[in-house]
Design brief:
Length: about 130
């Protein structure tokens, strides 16, 4: 996860398309990962929750249909169980997620994207 920008995306997601366009317009190299075909691993999610200002809560989509269907309350779960569930059920994740291993941006958060982009602006696209 280090030394590159990983962009977890879903093609029909409006915010995902906005982030991708912003990266391309600003010459930011990134590795695009389809969040449903290759979701973040529990280890990646753990790392992102550690470096995120809001912890794991910033990644969980409590308003998603899947969250309601499962009838869960992630606050009542063990951390390790939640990480495993989020990796197995990526519809529970907010989108897009962008990380460089040191910062995490969820959604179209221009301030966080700009912080991440500063380190990668001059590098070639992966």
């Amino acid at each position: 996860m280090k030394n590159k920008v990983i962009f977890y995306t879903y093609p029909s997601c409006t915010s995902c398309r906005r982030v991708k366009s912003w990266f391309l317009e600003n010459g930011i190299p990134f590795e695009e990962r389809h969040i449903f075909k290759k979701p973040p691993t529990p280890e990646e999610l753990k790392h992102m929750s550690i470096i995120s200002e809001e912890g794991i809560d910033s990644l969980v989509s409590v308003r998603s249909n899947r969250y309601r269907q499962l009838g869960i309350n992630h606050l009542d779960m063990k951390f390790s169980e939640l990480l495993k569930l989020l990796s197995e059920e990526p519809k529970l994740l907010r989108r897009p997620i962008v990380t460089d291993g040191q910062q995490v941006a969820v959604g179209f958060n221009l301030d966080m994207l700009s912080l991440i982009a500063k380190r990668f602006k001059s590098k070639k696209i992966v």
